[in-house]
Amino acid sequence: MAKRSLQTRLPSAPAVPLLVPAGLSVIGVTYGLARYGYGLYLPDFRAAFPLSTTGAGVVASGSFLAYCGTAALAGHLVVRGRARRALWLAGGSAALGSAVVATAWSWQVLAVGVLVAGSGAGFATPALVAAVAATVPAEGEPQAQGVVNSGTGAGIVLGGLVVLAAPGTWREVWAGFAVVALLATWWADRCTAWPPGPHRPAPGPGGVRVLALRRPLAAAAVAGVGSASVWTFGRDLLTEAGLSSAVTGLLWCLLGAAGLVGGLSGHLVDRFGVRVAWPVSVGLCAAAVVLLAAAPGSLPASAVSLTCFGAGFVALTGVLIAWGAGTAPHAAGQAAAVVFIGLTAGQACGAVLLGALAGTTGVPVAFVVAAGLLGLAATATSGGAPAVHVGEQVPPRPSRSHRTPRDAAGRRARDCTP
């Protein structure tokens, strides 16, 4: 059988817009389901395995760290024209990890599955940035990339709906995640006009210096520690407070839907700059965590809390990208990668530290500490963030004939979310 040529498999005009829902599906399953699904199903996992609160935090930490590693590797692949390989690594990792979770017979096997499943998200965003840049007409790229990246919220909503429709069937559900991951990846692959083949990175301005990003990097790491509270232990706290599985699933849907609203953070940065947008978005998360710690058994309070957290968290990720791009406008894509790795590394540390604290003092106390850390992170722009606006962050875009994967990553950095 002849090997399929990527050069001859260019999508027809009707297939081009299909990359948008296909890419959204990949982001939805790799982020919203395979990565953040661990926190959603933590009550079920703890009922099935002898998993303590501390142990649950360690497992989540491994998943976050795996994301850091694969995000760095994905950037390496995309710059060298291997975005298609990164896409299949995203879908394959999410599928394999989800299958391991579905068949886990011990908490150790479950941990391996969660780690592998969560790593897929690190490959997904860089691959889809390149896919959209290569396939969608230039005038439609900003809108297309924004819709694709909203898949995280869509995936979280879907996960919550599944909990509502099929409570107590986590093994079957995670097996379904594996199938959906492969189908979504295949769909996105078929809808992408991939470049002819791998290449060497194009010469250009020097890369970003991590030292120059020390302030946004530190802010991202501290915010990551605090945000790990809700992503890892949020539903567990609600369940222990007496809310039913159906109610907590509905609340998770609300969190995901609010995240779609948080994707409008670019307008906040454009109007007020990073110095205002950062403390507003992080402060919203801090207030949400305090409210959840104070009244986890109250449905109205929990609904308000998760709505604020979903919107605030997605907004703060968008502001982080703008902050990084404003600090290193010549290497916006690399700057975004650095601050996102810092955010996720903070989440990894937070999952362990907050889990250990919750195991000794209780989950509400751990949430109060997390809120304090988010409040600390919110002060990071008090004297050092550039007063940049969205339109000032990225250099003029090159023509399509001269664009490279690195150009695409830098140009689209403002719209990507973790």
UniProtKB/TrEMBL annotation:
Coiled coil: none annotated. It is found in: Cell membrane. It is a multi-pass membrane protein. Residues 386-418 are annotated as: Disordered. This is Predicted arabinose efflux permease, MFS family. Keywords: Cell membrane, Membrane, Transmembrane, Transmembrane helix. PROSITE patterns: MFS (PS50850). Residues 16-389 form the Major facilitator superfamily (MFS) profile domain. It holds the Pfam family MFS_1. GO terms for cellular component: plasma membrane. The chain crosses the membrane at residues 12-34, 54-79, 86-105, 111-134, 146-167, 246-264, 276-295, 301-323, 335-359, 365-390. Its main location: membrane. Residues 404-418 have a biased composition (Basic and acidic residues). GO terms for molecular function: transmembrane transporter activity.
